[in-house]
Design a protein that fits this description.
Largest sheet: 5 strands, parallel
Number of domains: 2
CATH superfamily of the largest domain: HUPs
Number of helices: 13
Strand order of the largest sheet: 5-4-3-10-11
CATH class of the largest domain: Alpha Beta
Structural class: alpha/beta
Distance between the termini: 31 Å
Number of strands: 14
Strand content: 15-25%
Order of helices and strands: EEEHEHHEHEEHEEHEHEEEHHEHHHH
CATH topology of the largest domain: Rossmann fold
CATH architecture of the largest domain: 3-Layer(aba) Sandwich
Amino acid sequence: MHAWPASEVPALPGKGRDLKIHDTATQGTITLAPGPVARIYVCGITPYDATHIGHAATYNAFDLVQRVWLDTKRQVHYVQNVTDVDDPLLERALRDGQDWTELAERETSLFREDMTALRMLPPQHYIGAVEAIPGIVPLVERLRDAGAAYELDGDVYFSVESDPNFGQVSNLDAQAMRLLSAERGGDPDRAGKKDPLDPMLWMAARPGEPSWDGASLGRGRPGWHIECVAIALDHLGMGFDIQGGGSDLAFPHHEMGASHAQVLTGEFPMAKAYVHAGMVALHGEKMSKSKGNLVFVSALRRAGVDPAAIRLALLSHHYRADWEWTDEVLAEAVARLERWRAAVSRPDGLPADALVEEIREALANDLDAPGALAAVDRWVDAQNASDGDDESAPGLVSRAVDALLGVAL
């Protein structure tokens, strides 16, 4: 599966700072200092109802991570998956009378278009769950053969008891885990499981549903969590720098994935930091596919909204915050974009070296994008209030806003 084209990232004078980021597992801020190549895995979409603003906010957060690392003169090895076979996708295809593969291909294509328009830097490896199945089957077999998984009516489940570090990603108690498992795709009430929280690794073929050859597992399809594990281990290995996604993935998805990987490899932890973006609401409720209260990037673009304004609207909220999309949020972003473009369109201006360092400092401090925007606002206000004579300043500001914030002026 191919990703989308990369926009050019302008080079800036000097060098950025190491990233301090909030880690869900430790509930604190840690400083990441990767080697020459920083490694990040971000969980991708299930391709239906893409791309809504909640998606865009999540991927914007991890795009900022890439930009901070690139500014430190590191390379970035970024991997993202597409869950192109899963119960919600099959249910949507059945509801709409569509072939599930055509639905997945169409929505994935739309997602690529939206990411390109928003200037999100693409992953080096963009992998669909279906294409990963040949690598998933051996991992499930290894877990089963090691006694870390068991069969139940043809399905194969992972035993959470096999990982002594289970629970250290989300830090939730058993009751909270059970409630979230039922809410987020698990089956804690299924009879016969060793532990209600045990997640499915391999689902035996069901009538009318797609299935693949699972060697000794029989025909079926993989569970949700093992898909990402197989892709991450194949392309990044253990101990990569960031496992990222929305806050609703901390449990069960990232918790279970970490346990799968840790039992498979005998190493801990799977990732140095577990980083989660907040949820976006609309009309007082979390934006979600099940509720249908979605604002789509593609619809905004068709309505003539500049993608740079959409990106500024996302950047105006801290990535970990839960916030609400409103017409006012977008209007403020449109107005900000106009002010910024007017300021950098002048032939000269106020010196901007200090501004570049302010943006760097804000982003290195747990991706404080609102702080970075405020710094640019101050330079723009000063630029409009006085006459500067630095001919290089407007160009430097434009390059910095593009390189570090992904906004083309």
